[in-house]
Each structure stands twice: as structure tokens, then as C-alpha cells.
Amino acid sequence: MQVMYFAWVRERIGLPMEEVETQASTVQDLVAELVAREARYEMAFADTSALRVALDQELADFDAPLDGVREVAFFPPMTGG
Amino acid sequence: MIRVQAMPFDPGGELNTFTASVAGAGAVMSFTGLVRDVSGGLSEMEIEHYPGMTEKALGAIRADAMGRWDLADAMIIHRFGALAANEVIMMVATASRHRKDAFEAADFLMDYLKSRAPFWKKEVTKDGADWVAAKDSDEDALTRW
Predict the structure, then answer these.
(1) Are residues A57 and B52, on separate chains, in Cβ contact within 8 Å?
(2) Partners of residue B50 in chain A, C-beta under 8 Å
(3) Which residue of chain B is at minimal alpha-carbon distance from A54?
(4) Which of A39, A46, B20, B61 could serve as a FRET partner for B140 with CA atoms 20 to 30 Å apart?
(5) Do A78 and B134 touch (CB under 8 A)?
(6) Are strands B71-79 and B2-5 parallel, antiparallel or unpaired?
(7) Domain B2-127 in CATH: superfamily?
(8) Contact (CB<8Å) A80/B114
(9) Does residue A80 lie in a domain region?
(10) Is residue A10 part of a domain?
(11) What is the pLDDT of residues A4-35, one digit of tens each?
């Protein structure tokens, strides 16, 4: 699936998007897999309560299932307007 | 109408076009958001967004407003990219038969697009760059609706 990062999450991880091969069944499982990879992911996901997630461009929760999801995006709370 | 663009726009001209398109409406309300130089040393405000999701989220927020109030139309224009202090970031306009619907719907659109549209602001000054943090009060504002 395609995993995207925005704002300071993108800066901490150091890339805007990447293709991730995963068997993770929920967002939380995917986060755990990413965090286990490298320190920069650990730094970006240190406090998931400060993060938001979108699944196929719809806001979702961290316990949401990933069945059939093609695009996951992680970002800080939005500041539009 | 929803528009997400890097290019500057003229809010007065947009408002006139919108007003002309809602013949029969008795009330038109508009809000324009400008870049504030909070620190006094802003060199630019960078606005990042999530192409695709931004348009969907704004469309959903607009549709929600159209369903809740008796509106002839509602529009949202939001910019992204590097903006200077006092530049226009975004505007919303609503049109209705009576003013209350237009006022409330515009207020609702602003509250929702602050916290539910995927935009992020970064303030760049000579001392460095900082992401603007979302305020709890912005999230709390949604409970009004």
C-alpha cells in the first residue's frame, strides 16, 4: 500500500510517501511495523495521540482495519482556514 | 464551488461573481482569511495540503452545510504554497434567502475547515521555521454544531 506523510511527520521521516509491503491488519499494527524499522519512524510516531490518520483519504482511527485500503496517510492535526 | 489553488485570487471579484450567480437569494455572507504575522518577523507562511483528500474534505464540508441550512449556494477557495504576510489565504461565501442561514453556514464552514480539511501551516521567520500547532479551541468549536 502507499503510505504518505505530511507536515512535520514528513520532515521527521524524511520522505513524503513510500510503498510499504505489509500484513498489518490495523493502523496500529502498521505503525508498530514502521516504528520497528528505524529511529526516524520511532521519532515521528512517538506520540500517536498527536497524530491523525486517513485511510483512502477519509479520516479514520488508529484501531481501524486496513482491509482493502490502498492509501494510508499520517499527519498532525490540521490547521486550515 | 470548491477551489484549491496556489495562485492568488481577488476576493472582491470572486464575491461579485458568486453574488451574481445566486439571483433570488436575499443574503450573501463572505469571510476572507489573511496571513497574520504573529511573530512580527514572518518571511513567509507555507501551506501544505493533501491533494485529492483536500478537495474531497472541502466538498464534504460544503455538502454538510448545504444540508443543514437553507442555502442557495456555498463556495470555498483555499490556497496552498508560500504566502507572504497579509496575503489572502482563503475565503468562503454563502447565499441564502434569509441572513441567519448564510451567517451560520459560513461560521460552520470556517470551524470545519480549520480542523477537518488537510492543510498545515508553517511559519518561516529569520530565526527558523515552525509548524503552526492546532488549538484545542479549534477542535472544541466543532461541538457547537
Answers:
(1) yes
(2) 4, 6, 54, 57, 73, 75
(3) B53
(4) A46
(5) yes
(6) parallel
(7) Molybdopterin biosynthesis MoaE subunit (3.90.1170.40)
(8) yes
(9) no
(10) yes
(11) 999 999 999 999 999 999 999 999 999 999 99
